[in-house]
Amino acid sequence: MKKNLKKYTCLLTAAAMLTGAALTGCGSGGGSEEVVIYTNADDEAMEAMKHALDANGYEGQYLMQSFGTSELGGKLLAEGTNIEADLVTMSSFYLDSAQEQNSMFQDLTFDAPAMEEYPSFYTPITAQEGAIFVNTEMMAEHQLPMPTCLKDLTNPVYEGLVSVTDIQSSSTAWLLMQALVSAYGEDGAEEVLAGIYKNAGPHIESSGSAPLKKVRAGEVAIGFGLRHQAVADKADGLPIDYIDPMEGNFSLTESVAVVDKGDKSNPLAMEMAECIIKNGREELQQTYPLAIYEGETNDSENLSAYPMIFSEPLTVELLEAHQQISENARVLAEE
Amino acid sequence: MSRKKELEIKGIFVLVVLVFLIFLLVPLARLFLKSFVGDAGLTPDFYGEVLTGRGFLRAFGNSLVISSVSAVVTTLLAFILAYGVHYCNLPGRYKGFISRAAVAPMLLPTITYGFAIIYSFGKQGLITRLFGTQLFDIYGFNGLLLGYVIYTLPVSFLLLSNTMSYIDKKFSVVSRIMGDSPFATFVGTVLRPLLGTLAASFVQCFFLCFTDYGIPASVGGEYEVAATVLYNEMLGSVPNFSRGACVAMLMLIPSVVTIALLHYLEKYNIRYNKISQIEIRRGRIRDTVFGVLSAVILACILSVFAVIFVVPFVDEWPYRIQFTLEHVLGVFADNSLVTVCRNSLVVALLTAALGSLTTYGAALTTARSHLPGGVKQVIENISLITNTIPGMVIGIAYLLIFSGTPLQNTLFLLVICNVIHFFSTPYLMMKSSLTKMNASWETTAMLMGDTWLKTIVRVVTPNAMGTILEVFSYYFVNAMVTVSAVIFIAGARTMVITTKIKELQYYTKFNEVFVLSLLILAVNLAARGVFRGIAAGRQGAKRMVRRPAFRKQKA
Are A249 and A227 in contact (CB under 8 A)? Predict the structure, then answer.
């Protein structure tokens, strides 16, 4: 009996020793000085930001951690200025809500001559567009006509073969909604959306990346989501093509903001924010081609066909109004 | 002397309750408050908004139905498997295989379940291709049922198998000799002692399904469930913690019913003086039936996961299926992998150690003490509540409570969160094993002059070692695969493998998700191997352990 008690104790001791190792491991890194960056950015954008920071002498002085949009949104709202991050890059309207609820960001202290006007506490790093994408093999297999606009997706030939995102759960769907409301007005948008929902059936997804996942997997033929992800898939040689809908390629910006930690604010955080904007945009534009700042051009080969900007500011209130249109459309689709 | 004994067990009770007070009830109370506090003070409005929201009640009803059906199906399947292992004359190796395969799904992160179903039974799925046609529509009720059954089978099997191993099978023999019909014997000596565990299994499975978000997100389709509503309110495109907290509170309602149910079934628990090792009667028909049924069940479940071993090693499933190691190499080229792996292992080992201690302490107070029933009920209720709270709710509640404290972003908080989150099943296993042991050991030992603690260490613990190791291993693998709560409370320096998986999923790098899932599977298999090794090593010592215990009893 002693023998197996010993074994059990051994396990416990081993566990305790491992923790010790891990804790000291963290401590010896001198971690407290590093600027912690939380981001919801995609891989490509993260790489571009890292390149900008590393090339300008900040290598090893920051720790970049990525999150999904909803998780990071939850953290911002729940933690406020207690958040571990010194610097955050995130979908702009989430930053608006977090600022409104927790007044947690500092005003930026550097100039960034954006073409549109943005609040004083953030400035965009990317503008991400929406587009339709298709699985070319499935289109051929089912002999489906290529859609040219969002309204085409209401065509009954696509029944069960379309996947879109639910605006209740993911802001990616807002890109679709903005296009519909712009082109058809609120009532028209509700009707078209109901038609799309009818065709989508079980493929109304909660995650922004899910439609592309289903198109890739051959579960559906057509999806709507972030344009740059479909561009990347096509370039990678997957049987995927993208279509810029005639209603327009609307966009959402992701922005950088510096958390206000009072005396504990790390001054390097503001410098890094500036560095990302000043030195990262060129590489960022390769993936997210839309020009944001004065002096930038829209000349990338990846440029979308119908870049459009929604006529109203993209506030949380507008998003809630658009969510209601979507809810109405779902009821309509079930009838 | 008896007063002293009470003191020790009271001490343990207070410790256990304190842990749950700080790390479960306070965060929950905070959420409860949140569900009533609006911009203009206290208000019941959020409940009104939630209850009148589109389809909320329907989603809630759907959740009740699908969770109940899944729980019944799972418990039935798990019973067949466990019966095959404990009551049939199947070859030893086959029994070993059943025991291992039945818990296999638990070793993989749940993120893979949805993928696995789509990549297996979807339009281009592996199994669809083998059969040449899609077997069933995977979105909605069917997909959810399949996903939930796979998800909960390990828990159900562990509970049933654990209890069966503490049932004295000689009672079946006696019953037969007394002339009972086979059916009466089955009911009296198998079903009846198992009733409490069968109910516990149902409840555990029910709440695992009821609170899971990942499976409905993948294959729920138009069958909306409460967990999806919770997610949309809590973490949707316009997060609203107040409304989210309302949904979370409403989701606690079913647990009230189950607390009553479990309390009622408590009286069916039966203690055995000792567990006899007996030859199981020959029964060729019985053995064939259960052997074949087990094989079919396991084949179905394992075939769903087959695709996981294919996807990471091909270029791009399903359209470019030439072999490649690109995804694997890509994952291992990431230099943050070492840190997250180390963090994961530390968290898993500590969770296992601390979790085993907590469950053991808790189970000792409920199963081997003379504390009043009401006091014991406190722990029973805690155990049930831990199982009825969705991970994301725990995660967000922890953010609200522990942000700004020294605990924020520490591995310790991750460990404690896991210990609480996964408490329920191991606690039931532990309690079940302690309850089935002879109740008079402590008294006998005390008469012999041993202290209570000595008896626990020298008699009870060695006899419960099999379950303790199972609990240790349960905590370990669950800490390795969990993500729902951890994603919120891990900091940049305390990230674990599953949060890495979440990142990759977010980048739409699904192949890499599978590579890391397989890595976790490998770690879990290795860990279980080690734990089993220890258990086997202990088998030899077991007889030496038992004897002094019984000698004392006789004396």
Answer: yes
Residues B128/B398, Cβ–Cβ less than 8 Å: no
Find the radius of gyration of the CA atoms of chain B: 24
B455 Ramachandran zone, left/alpha/beta (phi>0; psi -120 to 50): alpha
Q: Measure B222 CA to nearest chain A CA, in Å.
A: 5
Query: A76-107: b or e for each residue (b if 16 or more CB lie within 10 Å)?
Result: bbbbbbbbbbbbbbbbbbbbbbbbeebebbbe
CB atoms within 10 A of CB B271: 15
B464 and A4 Cβ atoms separated by less than 8 Å: no
What ipTM score was computed for the predicted complex, to two decimals? 0.87
Structural domain containing residue A84: 34-127+253-287
How many domains, in total, are found in chain A?
2
Q: Is A72 inside a domain boundary?
A: yes
What is the distance between the alpha carbons of residues B511 and B327, in angstroms, rounded to a whole number? 6
Secondary structure E strands in chain A: 35-39, 62-66, 87-91, 122-135, 162-165, 204-205, 222-226, 240-243, 251-258
**Residues B487, A14: C-beta atoms closer than 8 Å:** no
Q: Which residues of chain B have pLDDT under 50?
A: 1-3, 543-555
**Could you read off the pLDDT of B407-464 as tens digits, one per residue?**
999 999 999 999 999 999 999 999 988 988 888 888 888 888 888 888 888 888 988 9
pTM: 0.90
Together in a domain, A117 and A176: no
Residue A30: per-residue pLDDT: 41
Q: Quote the pLDDT of residue B255.
A: 83
Note whether A104 and A119 are within 8 A (CB).
Answer: no
The answer on A199 and A157 residing in a single domain is yes
Nearest-angstrom CA–CA distance, B553 and B543: 15
Q: Any idea what DSSP says for residue A107?
A: P
Residues of chain B positioned with their CB less than 8 A from the CB of A331:
54
Q: Are residues A144 and A231 in the same domain?
A: yes
Q: Judge whether A54 lies within some domain.
A: yes
Residues 505-534 of B with CB under 8 A from A: 505-510, 534
pLDDT of residue B18: 96
Same domain as A314, residue A260: no
| A93 and A144 assigned to the same domain | no
**Closest Cα of chain B to A137: distance in Å?**
9
Tell me, what CATH number does A272's domain have? 3.40.190.10
Ordered structural domains, chain B, with CATH: 1-33+311-555 (1.10.3720.10), 35-309 (1.10.3720.10)
Nearest CA in chain B to A21: B346
Strands B37-38 and B41-42: antiparallel
In a domain, A85, yes or no: yes
A307 strand-pairing partners: A249
Sign, Cα dihedral of B251, B257, B259, B265: negative
Whether residues A229 and A203 share a domain: the answer is yes
The segments of chain A whose pLDDT lies below 50 read 1-13, 15-31
Q: Cβ B345–A4 below 8 Å, yes or no?
A: no
- Answer yes or no: do A99 and A213 share one domain: no
**Cβ–Cβ of A173/B237 closer than 8 Å?**
yes
> Maximum CA pair distance of chain B?
74
Do residue A192 and residue A330 come from a single domain? yes
- Chain A CB contacts of B502 under 8 Å are 67-68, 71
Q: What span, in angstroms and rounded, lies between the C-alpha atoms of A253 and A69?
A: 13
- Nearest Cα neighbor of A173 from A200, A148, A134 is A200
**Which residue in the set B411, B494, B541 is minimally distant from A3, CB to CB?**
B541
Q: With an 8 Å Cβ cutoff, are A7 and B400 in contact?
A: no
pLDDT tens sequence across A75-99: 999 999 999 999 999 999 999 999 9
CA distance A229 to B278: 63
In this predicted structure, what is the pLDDT of residue B223?
Answer: 94
